[in-house]
Specification:
The protein is mainly alpha-helical. It has 2 domains: about 40 residues, no CATH class; about 120 residues, Up-down Bundle (AhpD-like), CATH 1.20.1290.
Length: about 190
C-alpha cells in the first residue's frame, strides 16, 4: 500500500492531468509512479522531461536500460527494477543480460559491462569518477557526450527511485511478471 496517493487522471491536480493523459495514450495505462508524482505537477513534469531527454540521447535503447537498471539496482528500487526489467525485455535486451542486471552479476558483453560499472561508480561516488574510470569508459567505445547522457539516466532514476522509496509505490500489474525484491539473494561481483 502506497504511503502517498496514487492519482488517476480524474483525481490528479489539473496541472498534471495532461501528462497523465499522455501516459495513458502512450502506455495504455497510467503507471503508478506517474500517479504518485502527479501530486506535485512540477515533479511529474521534471521526471517526464528527463525521461524524454534520455530517449533522444545517443545511447541505444538497450544501453539506456543498462543505465536505468544499474542505477535502480544501486538504489535498491523494487518498483523501477521491476518496471525497467519489463521495458528492457520489450526492447529485446537478451535474457541473460537482463538476468545479470537483476542479480548483480557482470554483463556478458564487455562494452555494456563497462557502461554498467561506470553508471554504478557514478552513483556510488556521486559523480566523482576517477580519470581511470573515465578512460575505461572511453576505451570501451563510448564518447564524452555519452558520459553526460549517463548523468541524465542517473537523474531520471534518482527522481523515480527516491519517489518510490518515500511513497512505497505499488507495482503495476503490467510489471508483475518482472517483480524484483531487494531482499532477494544477490550474487557478489
Amino acid at each position: 500500500m502506497s504511503r502517498f496517493p496514487v492519482h488517476t487522471i480524474d483525481s490528479a491536480p489539473p496541472a498534471a492531468r495532461g501528462s497523465l493523459e499522455g501516459a495513458q495514450q502512450a502506455f495504455g495505462f497510467v503507471p503508478n509512479l506517474l500517479g504518485v508524482l502527479a501530486a506535485a505537477p512540477s515533479a511529474l513534469a521534471a521526471y517526464l522531461r528527463v525521461s524524454t531527454a534520455l530517449t533522444v540521447s545517443s545511447l541505444s535503447a538497450i544501453e539506456q536500460q543498462v543505465v536505468l537498471l544499474a542505477v535502480s539496482a544501486e538504489h535498491e528500487c523494487e518498483y523501477c527494477m521491476s518496471a525497467h526489467s519489463a521495458i528492457a525485455a520489450s526492447v529485446e535486451m537478451p535474457p541473460e543480460m537482463l538476468d545479470a542486471l537483476r542479480h548483480g552479476q557482470p554483463l556478458p558483453d564487455a562494452r555494456l559491462e563497462t557502461l554498467r560499472q561506470t553508471t554504478e561508480a557514478m552513483v556510488k561516488a556521486r559523480g566523482w569518477l576517477t580519470q581511470d574510470q573515465v578512460d575505461q569508459f572511453l576505451a570501451a567505445g563510448f564518447t564524452p557526450p555519452q558520459l553526460l547522457e549517463v548523468i541524465v539516466g542517473v537523474a531520471q532514476k534518482t527522481i523515480s527511485n527516491y519517489t518510490n522509496h518515500l511513497a512505497a509505490t505499488p507495482l503495476d500489474p503490467q510489471f508483475a511478471a518482472f517483480e524484483w525484491r531487494r531482499d532477494a539473494p544477490v550474487s557478489t561481483r
